[in-house]
Design goal:
34% strand, 10-stranded parallel beta sheet, 17-stranded parallel beta sheet, alpha/beta, 10 helices, 23% helix
Length: 560
């Protein structure tokens, strides 16, 4: 009897265990089914939200394509209320957060919108997620849409890191060898990695794209006599290689809205002179040298002869200011002489009739827009990095010699531009642009703050050296490319970037290179970093190039 009782207990225990196991399996299955159902609903809701926002943006683009600035009202054309009703989105006009004066909104055809879509729970109907996207309607040129680009060619030599889109109007070339020049102008080439991009980056190439892989020797021949690698163009492979993260590759379908540099500078001159609309059309088609002379004769500007006179009288002058001297064609703003003084132009423009040199032996701060009828040179002196800070809350046009029509060159070296201010600088050069010797031989490369903050554009070509340097641009860089890039026979934009640590052991010798550990291909080890910053459209809107066609700038999709 005891044995039978024991067997019954064991049997009941086994049945109970199997019952509990069955109930557990059933509970897990029900939970998984419910989780899958919720996940499917979540994905479907997110897709629905994204689709509604994208369709809204597509219709906004269609509405501004044929917008007539001279006769139509932009707000009526966009019909924000109608778009909200049609697509079930919320569109918030946040333009006033960026542009203080209400007249600027009408004059500059600039609007900033947040387009959002609420995802709600099916049962409670409460919002648990919001998908949104910022869009900017602007009358500025297309080059401001890209982190890097050229209407000609883009050449990325070595391990640059790019967060944002890249535009190549013709061809794009990627190599894993970076070029550099020493103090004695000797040229060297150093094997390194291919460039890397963020996962959301797009490479827009309207021509072809090529790569050159030194490791496979499919492009470079090593010349023992010259101690250099020579590129053989015909051995480029018909694809494009990136080190770890590559962008998607597309053709640019949207029209590229170009800028007329000379017309833009004349427009800014007339605005600086306080020219009324009814007079404007009588002057805008004149030669720039003639226009400049006539505006001075009409006493539209305050003409000063030196930087010291500018500093002395800047707070007592209401007009925009021209620096012009018969004794010298170069004006130097020296950080030590300024001694912490802020050069604040307020709503006025500064027009420099000659070369402008910003020499940061102590920090320099300039607020206001500038036109340079000559060359621009920005450089720092000494070893103290803080003394090399040049804080520019400005739009700067480097036109060149107005009388000889010679494009102005721009050279930036050994200086940190706008690393402390909240605003950005937009620097536009009619002649070649060269950036070099920024934070030389700095090797603590872990996610630094930007040392060049703003957008840099040249009507010509541009070369950037980030081999011994460490260059981190928050903003963008674009070269229209009508001539060969400095030190290269390629028209467009050329970036040279090493990935890893670099030291100079002895002056006059090649640099000493330490590549990163295997698998470390991200932002930390790249000596050239550019992160696209769309704030340039709105923070510097009053000084940006104005074009006669509207475009739509779309920011990243975010989920809150």
């Amino acid at each position: 009897m005891n044995e039978k009782g024991h067997s019954l207990v064991v049997t009941m225990l086994i049945i109970t265990i199997f019952l509990l196991l069955g109930l557990t399996i059933m509970s897990v299955a029900i939970y998984q089914a419910r989780f899958t159902e919720v996940r499917v609903e979540d994905v479907e809701s997110f897709h629905e939200a994204t689709k509604a926002i994208e369709e809204t943006i597509a219709e906004m683009k269609t509405r501004i394509e044929d917008f007539d600035m001279s006769t139509e009202d932009l707000d009526s054309k966009l019909d924000i209320e109608g778009l909200q009703n049609r697509y079930g989105v919320k569109i918030e006009d946040v333009t006033s957060n960026y542009i203080e004066a209400s007249y600027q909104k009408k004059l500059l055809f600039t609007r900033v919108y947040i387009i959002s879509y609420d995802i709600k729970d099916k049962d409670s109907h409460k919002t648990y997620k919001t998908v949104e996207r910022r869009v900017i309607v602007t009358s500025t040129p297309s080059f401001l849409k890209y982190a890097l680009g050229s209407q000609e060619n883009v050449v990325l030599n070595g391990g640059a890191y790019i967060e944002g889109n890249i535009y190549a109007g013709k061809n794009a070339y990627m190599t894993n060898v970076a070029n550099y020049i020493d103090f004695d102008n000797n040229e060297y080439m150093e094997p390194t990695s291919f460039p890397t991009t963020s996962k959301n980056s797009v490479l827009f190439v309207n021509g072809s794209y090529f790569s050159c892989d030194h490791d496979k020797n499919d492009c470079y021949d090593y010349n023992v006599e010259d101690n250099a690698f020579q590129c053989i163009l015909e051995n480029y492979s018909n694809d494009v290689r990136f080190q770890s993260q590559a962008p998607s590759i597309q053709k640019e379908r949207e029209e590229f809205i170009d800028v007329d540099f000379e017309w833009t500078v004349k427009d800014k001159l007339l605005n600086a002179a306080g020219m009324e609309t009814k007079e404007y059309n009588n002057y805008i088609n004149k030669r720039i040298d003639q226009l400049f002379t006539e505006l001075i004769e009409q006493k539209r500007f305050a003409v000063l002869k030196s930087v010291s006179e500018l500093r002395e009288k800047i707070n007592s002058i209401d007009q925009s200011i021209i620096l012009q001297s018969g004794d010298s064609s170069q004006f130097v703003l020296d950080g030590e002489e300024l001694d912490g003084e802020v050069l604040d132009l307020q709503d006025r423009w500064l027009i420099v009739d000659g070369d402008l040199v910003l020499r940061a032996n102590k920090p320099i701060t300039i607020k206001g827009n500038i036109i340079v009828f000559g060359n621009l040179e920005i450089f720092g002196i000494g070893q103290d990095k803080k003394n090399k800070n040049i804080d520019l809350d400005s739009t700067v046009y480097v036109f060149g010699r107005r009388d000889l029509n010679v494009p102005g060159r721009t050279l930036i070296y050994n200086a940190n531009i706008n690393i402390t201010g909240d605003k950005v600088v937009v620097l536009l050069s009619r002649g070649p642009l060269e950036i070099a010797r920024i934070n030389e031989f700095e090797n603590t490369l872990s996610l630094k703050q930007p040392n060049l903050k703003g957008y840099f554009y040249t009507e010509s070509s541009a070369t950037v050296y980030a081999v011994g340097s460490y260059i981190n641009i928050q903003g963008g860089l674009f070269a229209r490319g009508d001539t060969s890039a400095p030190d290269f026979d390629v028209s467009g934009l050329v970036i040279n970037a090493y990935r890893g640590q670099v030291e100079q052991l002895k002056l006059g010798n090649p640099l000493d290179f330490t590549p990163p550990k295997e698998g470390d291909d991200g932002i930390e080890q790249s000596r050239f970093v550019v992160s696209y910053e769309p704030h340039v459209f709105i923070d510097r809107v009053d000084g940006l190039p104005f074009v006669k066609k509207l475009s739509l700038i779309v920011d990243k999709l975010t989920v809150k």
